[in-house]
Amino acid sequence: MEAERLNWLRKNQSKLRVGKYRQLTDSASTNNQGEKVIQGKRVILPSTFVGSKRYMDQLYFDGMAISSVVGFPDIFITFTCNPKWPEITRELGKYNLKPQDRTDIISMVFKIKFDELIKDLTKKHILGKVMACK
Known about the structure:
mainly alpha
């Protein structure tokens, strides 16, 4: 799936208006001594491609914009997954599998628990009133 998206991005650079990044390709085609360097074709990934530099930059800028309006955060929560959660071990135990064998189950359980945490924080206000959430 990701390979297909990358292929589409590579083949449709003109549709993505990456021509405005011409200076990037012009400056990258010479080395420090001003000599021409032969390179492959540069592909610009948009901010909609999850994991790209522009995607990460966009998340950062969104966070800074939220902070400038409502103030800086009082709490920072990191939520991780434990492959030994009862829901996961119960499901994997039926088929005698290891967590790395069924990452889809791990992802689904994590998403369910994460959504519940967000609901508890934003709707039930278990840690107080939420001013902003991204």
